[in-house]
Design a protein that fits this description.
The protein has 359 residues and is mostly helical. The protein is built from 19 helices and no strands. Helix 4 packs across helix 17 (287-298) and helix 9 crosses helix 14 (257-265).
């Protein structure tokens, strides 16, 4: 992507963040701002206290906290778009398709929600997902391990790209790489566990009343599915990826064997994370699995259909995620996105399918 397009992306995200209203319910803003001021909060009974990294960094910047946190969300989501474009190009996506993927990522459902409520580690995780996968694929294991080890102080998800990559190499029978990646993932998990132990024993942190940490009742997903109707559960899950739900399986069928292996290797992580966290938000962390498959299909379809899909997805996500109530209802843009995705798959089915392996 050219610098001008990156600047445009930042401007678009910044405008959405500025127009987005403040949440009308209680959020985690207070605990994150307090960690930014005090660094450590002895006796904290909120599980967010175990994720202090972003607060530690942003708390050093002068200015209104809301502006600082929204700026952080904007920059991370723009960075995620750029990293995702580079990631799909590692799977031999064209430059044209990589630009579409960048916008689909930056204006994704999880991304837009953080422009509405930026007080979370999610923006950083959205960036680290494709960035770490890209670094690992380029052979930059030491750097990826260091970034992951620091990232777990923001959220434990930062360890998953190493684990997923290790499992992928195992399925590819690349055992030497598998063991190196496994050792790196274990090292990062040791760092995370040491921080958890220190926080619980020396700072007397507790997770507080959260379903995510209550494994005896099935984690957050049990509470989520019991509380919500089946119709609402299906709707929320559908809205996470919208039309990409159609492109993802088509891309896996038409894409390379390595793409299918990576997806299969990610199944345990998908199950665990989506069981312990709110599924409709946790799913977007795995956009780095969806986008390479989507790129396979978009590469075989006309540009105008691809960009129409980008627009429909963006309208849906900005309306639902960023809560811009001036826009049409999300269900209308969801229907448009699904119809466009179906048309793209239909047009792509007749293209010459020549699977290529990752670089």
């Amino acid at each position: 992507m050219k610098r001008a397009e990156i600047a445009l992306m930042i401007a678009v995200l910044g405008t959405i963040a500025w127009l987005s209203p403040q949440p009308w319910w209680e959020t985690d803003r207070d605990v994150y701002e307090r960690m930014g001021r005090e660094w450590l909060v002895p006796g904290c009974n909120d599980f967010h206290c175990f994720r202090p990294l972003v607060s530690w960094v942003l708390g050093r910047f002068p200015g209104p906290p809301l502006v600082i946190w929204k700026s952080y969300a904007v920059l991370c989501q723009a960075g995620a778009g750029v990293a995702m474009a580079l990631w799909v190009m590692r799977w031999n996506a064209s430059a044209r398709t990589a630009r579409m993927i960048a916008w689909l990522t930056a204006l994704g459902s999880g991304a837009c929600y953080t422009l509405f409520d930026p007080y979370a580690s999610d923006p950083l995780m959205h960036l680290l997902g494709p960035l770490l996968m890209l670094m690992i694929d380029r052979g930059q294991l030491a750097a990826a391990t260091a970034v992951s080890a620091v990232g777990v102080f923001a959220k434990e998800f930062a360890a998953l790209p190493l684990a997923i990559s290790a499992a992928t190499r195992g399925l590819q029978e690349r055992y030497a790489e598998m063991w190196r990646l496994t050792a790196a993932a274990c090292g990062v998990l040791i760092v995370w566990a040491a921080w958890q132990l220190f926080a619980r024993t020396e700072l007397h942190y507790t997770t507080g009343p959260t379903y995510s940490a209550d494994l005896t009742t099935g984690g957050y997903i049990t509470f989520w599915m019991i509380t919500l109707s089946t119709t609402l559960v299906v709707t929320l899950i559908t809205l996470v990826f919208g039309g990409l739900w159609l492109l993802w399986p088509a891309g896996l069928i038409w894409g390379s064997r390595d793409l299918r292996r990576m997806t299969l290797a990610s199944v345990p992580a998908l199950i665990v994370l989506n069981s312990l966290q709110q599924p409709d938000r946790a799913l977007w962390n795995f956009a780095f699995l969806v986008m390479p498959a989507a790129a396979v299909v978009l590469d075989r379809a006309p540009s105008f259909l691809g960009w129409l899909l980008v627009a429909a997805q963006a309208l849906m996500n900005v309306r639902l995620g960023a809560q811009l109530l001036q826009l049409p209802p999300a269900r209308l843009s969801l229907v448009a996105a699904i119809v466009l995705a179906a048309a793209i798959v239909w047009r792509a089915r007749n293209a010459v399918i020549v699977p290529v392996e990752a670089a």
